[in-house]
Amino acid sequence: MRSELLRRLRETELIVPGDTVICALSGGADSVAMTHALRSLRDTLGIEVRACHFNHRLRGEESDADEAFCREFCASLGAELTVGSADVRQYAAERGESLEEAARHCRYAFFDTLGGKIATAHTADDQLETVLLQLVRGTGLKGLGGVPPRRGNVIRPMLPFSREEILSYLEENSLPHREDRTNAEDDCLRNRLRHHVVPLLKAENPALLAGVSRMTQTLRDDEALLQAAADALLCEDEGGYAVQPLRSSPQPLRRRALRTLLCGVPKLTAAHLEAAEALLFSGDPSARIDLPDGVVARRVYDRLVIGSDENAAFAAVTLPCPGEASLGALGAVVRCTAGIGEGLHLPAKLLAGGVTVRARKTGDRIRLNGGTVTLKKLMIDRRIPAAQRGRIPVIEKDGNVLAVWGVGENLDFLPRDGEPVYTICVTEREETP
């Protein structure tokens, strides 16, 4: 497995010389094999390999035992280990999220504090299960494309390998691992598919994993091409999007373009997309539809405008620094990470204790290269539709506007040369296994 992993990493450039790779180590078979294999290849690849472990505190003593195992395992490898933890149950209760969703938010907030490339140990079997989950729940081409090898700074180097290959690698190298007892239970759909459906499919086709791997790669390539063509239909026009290119395009491209426009709307359904599509062909030049969380799609003659009533701004949240918070009404997540990345750069010292992320308020001002200006005037000058202005995140500390997402940092609060920096970034809420 090690030689095949090396070949694939070089072929795909998933990891390149000089990278720092941080292995997400749970203690399970997959992550143990990944961490050991990458550590053994670090000199050959010219990379630094560390590990991290996140204790979700969901299984009491078992969770603590997993953490202790990871500490001991990394010590045996001579690998640096960073450990994080959170009370996921409390986090979920406070935000009204499922345990799975809350665990993922907490885990990825921890990952964002680490820098480098985060390697997770998803395997070919995980890929198969993900595709089956999508199929059972109902999906399109994108869902059938499964888990990509790379998304942002998260990489999945073990996707080409089966669970059987992983276990053989552990045996060959006399590597211990932990078994999560919940994996043996049938209380969730993924486990039921793994225990009862996958064995039947593998019996019908012993090469199933390889076939699914080829299929997902092909579908991801197809989806990327279709999405690029759909994006080309989005012609901005005075705070909205020109209707004619969308109306005259084939339906598969038109619907992809509409889904892109509505990506920030939570709980978007096929019915919502169909209603938005009907707006394009409506004879009423002022037709509108109401979408979840106060989002409105409306025709303004030959334009399609997506936004909300200005007074339907999202609720303010406290953003820990470093850390993350959910902007529920926007269907987005705001993250604060150490160091310079893509986003807004502010002094770490200034952000100590966290900041408030909110919608704009009357009287808000920011100093940019052209001087100090109110946010209202700035948004008018930039022709931002009134219905969208309440959905632009403003970063505030002690009553001062430090930065505005999509606009920039307040020049009064920029970091000095050599001063520790935090990066604040707003991204669409991502759903992955």
Describe this structure in words.
- This protein has 433 residues and is of the alpha+beta class.
- It has three domains: 218 residues, HUPs (Rossmann fold), CATH 3.40.50; 72 residues, Uridine Diphospho-n-acetylenolpyruvylglucosamine Reductase, domain 3, CATH 3.30.465.60; 112 residues, no CATH class.
- 41% of the residues lie in helices and 22% in strands.
- The protein contains 16 helices and 22 strands.
- It has a six-stranded mixed β-sheet, with helices on both faces. Strands 7-8-11-10-9 form a five-stranded antiparallel β-sheet.
- Helix 6 crosses helix 10.
- The chain is globular.
- The model has no long low-confidence stretch (mean pLDDT 90).
Largest sheet: 6 strands, mixed
**Approximately how much beta-strand content do the residues carry?**
15-25%
Unreliably modeled segments = none
Would you tell me the overall average pLDDT? Answer: 90
What's the CATH topology name of the largest domain? Rossmann fold
- Shape summary: globular
Tally of individual helices: 16
Beta-strand segment tally: 22
Radius of gyration: 24 Å
CATH class of the largest domain: Alpha Beta
CATH homologous superfamily of the largest domain - what is it? HUPs
| Corresponding CATH architecture of the largest domain | 3-Layer(aba) Sandwich
Strands of the largest sheet, in order across it?
Answer: 3-2-1-4-6-5
Structural class: alpha+beta
Number of domains: 3
- Distance between termini? 24 Å
